[in-house]
Write a structure and sequence with these properties.
Blueprint (H helix, E strand, L loop, with lengths): L2 H21 L2 H12 L3 H17 L1 H8 L4 H21 L3 H15 L2 H12 L3 H28 L4 H7 L1 H13 L23 H21 L9 H22 L5 H21 L4 H28 L5 H15 L2 H11 L3 H19 L9
Helix pairs in contact: 1-5, 1-7, 1-8, 1-10, 2-3, 2-8, 3-6, 3-15, 3-16, 4-7, 4-15, 5-6, 5-7, 5-9, 5-10, 7-15, 8-12, 8-14, 11-14, 11-15, 11-16, 11-17, 12-14, 13-14, 13-17, 16-17
Length: 376
């Protein structure tokens, strides 16, 4: 990549990691909240869905703004909002107020993806490689956040202290954004604002939304409860997420090929097969090994999904386009966390993994319906 492209990807990758480190720490925090508040699995699933749901819903209005406002300001709102929300989580005295704080965390975190991804799509020349390295930044945050929270709880620190300290990287991200201004071409162009929103009403973009939605069911349903002792625990959960960082870079390098939809289909099918194995494998080492492979494959899908958007959607509509995709993956997809909680409450973990396998397979199949065009 060009030097200026590397700088953009590095800055955005750090904030991407901050966003995900907080959101993906929720499953580890659930272990502490279950003990402190006496919550059952259904309640825990609803708490996770509060954060994930607003994470997805917020992406649409902020995606609209990302096409019309200076993106640096939106990213500063994102960083500051995350810091304030994590402070709110740390002081929440009850489940209802905790749900409100998690909703705020999801809301401000939802600023990032339509804004950050639209910037990369407008600035970085090597789209797939840029998405891959940017995704690696997110995956490192995904791994480090849960690992830090799990370690803090393991050594006896309060979950409230862990939550409050997660506000620090968000504040640092805000400082970096002020010190490293984004290039001018990251902003919208006046002529681009005139492109009508009906430009998104294409058959291929409809398939893209289905790709994200079914992947979201598997993502939320598969990750929310994996840290529990009955599955792999917080330590191996963090390792599975770290392997996802490697998957991001590998698939991002391949995403610049002409037909990323076919590769996405193949990787989705492999991910579905691993989920099916989780339904039948006994606990212990075989299950943990399969879960680690699941982490690698699941996050390798993201750069390929994102390049489907940049290959289909005109440049001026990409903020809104990524907004709707993340509404699909995190907003609608948050129902996967609720479903997972309900099935686990009924001692149906095998059924859960079969359902999630079907969802990720459906996601990959819909990718075959996307006919990539040269979007300008």
């Amino acid at each position: 990549m060009r030097r200026e492209d590397r700088r953009v990807v590095a800055v955005l990758g750090f904030l991407h990691g901050v966003v995900h480190s907080n959101i993906l720490s929720i499953p580890v925090f659930l272990l502490a909240w279950k003990a402190e508040f006496g919550a059952d699995d259904v309640t825990l699933g609803l708490l996770a869905a509060a954060g994930y749901g607003f994470y997805g819903v917020a992406a649409v209005p902020f995606g609209f703004l990302a096409d019309r406002r200076a993106p640096a300001r939106l990213l500063l709102v994102c960083a500051a909002g995350i810091a304030i929300s994590m402070a709110g989580v740390a002081v929440s005295p009850s489940i209802p107020l905790l749900a409100v704080s998690l909703g705020a965390l999801g809301l401000f975190s939802g600023v990032y993806h339509p804004t950050g991804l639209s910037i990369i799509s407008r600035v970085v020349v090597e789209q797939g490689r840029g998405m891959g390295w940017h995704g690696m930044g997110g995956s490192l945050g995904i791994a480090s956040g849960p690992a830090y929270v799990g370690a803090a709880l393991a050594v006896g620190l309060s979950w409230r202290f862990a939550a409050a300290s997660l506000a620090v990287p968000a504040l640092l991200a805000g400082i970096i954004l002020l010190a490293q201004p984004l290039p001018e071409e990251a902003s919208h162009r006046p002529a681009e604002a005139r492109v009508p929103l009906r430009g998104l009403l294409t058959r291929s973009y409809g398939f893209i939304l289905l790709v994200y939605m079914f992947a979201g069911f598997a993502y939320q349903g598969g990750l929310t409860f994996l840290p529990q002792p009955r599955f792999i625990g917080a330590r191996f959960f963090a390792l599975a997420l770290a392997l996802g960082a490697v998957g991001q870079v590998v698939s991002g390098t391949l995403a610049d090929r002409r037909q990323p939809g076919r590769l996405l289909f193949a990787l989705s099918a492999a991910t579905g097969a691993i989920l099916l194995s989780l339904a039948v494998l006994p606990g212990g080492s075989p299950f943990i090994a399969a879960a680690l492979v699941f982490g690698f494959l699941l996050f390798s899908l993201e750069p390929l999904q994102n390049t489907l958007v940049t290959g289909e959607v005109p440049r001026s509509l990409r903020g809104m386009a990524f907004g709707f995709t993340f509404l699909s993956v995190f907003g609608i997809g948050s129902l996967g966390a609720v479903l997972a909680g309900w099935l686990l409450a009924h001692d149906a973990s095998a059924t859960l993994f079969v359902v999630l396998s079907a969802c990720i397979a459906a996601s990959g199949t819909f990718a075959l319906g996307v006919r990539r065009r040269s979007a300008s």
